[in-house]
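Replying to the earlier thread about multi-chain prediction with a worked example.

Input:
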Amino acid sequence: MTTTTVPARPGARETGPGTPGAARGGRLPGRLRRIGLPYLLLLPALLLELLVHLVPMVIGIVMSFKELTQFTLRDWGTAPWTGGDNYRVSLDFDAPVGEALLHSFLVTCVFTVLSVGLCWLIGTAAAICMQDAFRGRGLLRALFLVPYALPVYAAVITWAFMFQHDNGLVNHVLYDQLGLTDKPSFWLIGDNSFIALLVVSVWKGWPFAFLIVMAGLQNIPRELYEAAALDGAGTWQQIRRITLPSLRPVNQVLVLVLFLWTFNDFNTPYVLFGKAAPEAADLVSIHIYQSSFVTWDFGTGSAMSVLLLLFLLLVTGVYLFLTSRGRKTADV
Amino acid sequence: MAAPRSFLWTRRVFLTLLTGFVLLPVYVMVSSSLKPLQDVSGEFRWLPSGLTIRPYIDIWSTVPLADYFVNSLIVAGAATVCSVVIAVFAAYAVSRYAFRGKRVFSVTVLSTQMFPGILFLLPLFLIYVNIGNATGIALFGSRGGLILTYLTFSLPFSIWMLIGYFDSVPRDLDEAAMVDGCGPLRALISVVVPAAVPGIVAVAVYAFMTAWGEVLFASVMTNETTRTLAVGLQGYSTQNDVYWNQIMAASLVVSVPVVAGFLLLQRYLVAGLTAGAVK
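Result:
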């Protein structure tokens, strides 16, 4: 029996802990259990993913080819097929529906790039600043995680209060106290709503980047810094030559996750603006919600969702391809 | 390690500004929750004209906040427990066994991360209604449906992180336990799980926060009796009045449990992320 416990060689990894079972004589039920066990362990996760993600996705794709109004929705299976009409409407950028979708898509792109960039920048800078011990570091770290821990609706509703036209803090400071604007501005309607949304999104999102980068920093060996210091590299140089390059693999995952979350974010604009976002801050997810649940055109809403998914798949694919190629050349 | 003055000063200024940015809404939340109504309806004031705890009493009667609280606790709690248990089993299978379809499974689970929630909101709603009509199991409008939905939201990330974490637990440990006569499940529960506590706590915190903060599905899939805090908080603004002081008080009350729990467990979170996700 002891022969099965020789320290696992790298190659023996994949045989798994099932090996001791073989010592029990390799009875058929035992073997069956051994082969079936991983599937059994995966079964709950698989079933749930299937029920809540994959099957709905397939239904969503089917729905995007149908004409679905509040009348046909109940028996959506028998609703009339429309072929690619929903897609044609969504992608006809000269007609109102397509034009609005394109506008919302472009707004989301600009918003996502700015938000992810700022979240990454602030999060990384904060994590690097807190790499070395100083008095109050633990307290500060806890404080910085508060926006991440606060429930979205509680945090965003507070921001909505601060952005109020008549009784908000932002106008009070900008107009009454500093006199930077010649009259109180509207922040939750009109063009300024984009800025408001961006500020809230960055406030809420940067602590996640901070958390991940902080975890990544702990994997950089101290000796690298000591060696660099011996070679005469100052703090700034160490950050540029050691810290940032070492964070590359962490950043690749972080930026992708931030991108997907920000692009799909529904909660922030929904709590900030309600069911209909102002044009300047009309993110795609809210726009689709509006097209489906407010104007009761579920077919077109589904088509828009599928288009969004295709876009995200494409971006993710290209991104993974580029970064993995980058990693390979870096290894050589 | 003597950092140069330029770095120390940049650090000081940057961290001070950032602290202000982070704390501003927290200050507004706390101070406004202690103001009388005329203070929050008129021009903003940094300090209340008179401190009052009235909002904290009124929040419970303006809307049935206690009921929403209980709903949120049940939904988020159950989703967290189920999600963690299921993720532990799945991650153990992926980390310890070679089997056909392993890669497909990992890729599929991870790619559900990128699905826009809006894509399966309506189909899921229809599935739940159809299951209800066919079997009599009420998923739509019930806490059960919401639990089921939420637990799958945190599942992919949890599995992914736990795989990394389990990989970092030496396999000699569970193999030794099995040589001593444990079955694989006993080995998982009595050896691997205790060694992976930081990772499991981190995953549980993530799952709870995901469920506690979700708005979209909560607003479509709940009714008057199953409404969660995410939807219930909208009840403080009526046609005529917005009770901002009560909204702030209620926001604070619903935030305290999560924030406190999170801050207590944040060490685990960093440790869990270090070993699990960030490698």
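DSSP finds 13 helices and no strands in chain B.

Feel free to reuse this layout for your own posts.
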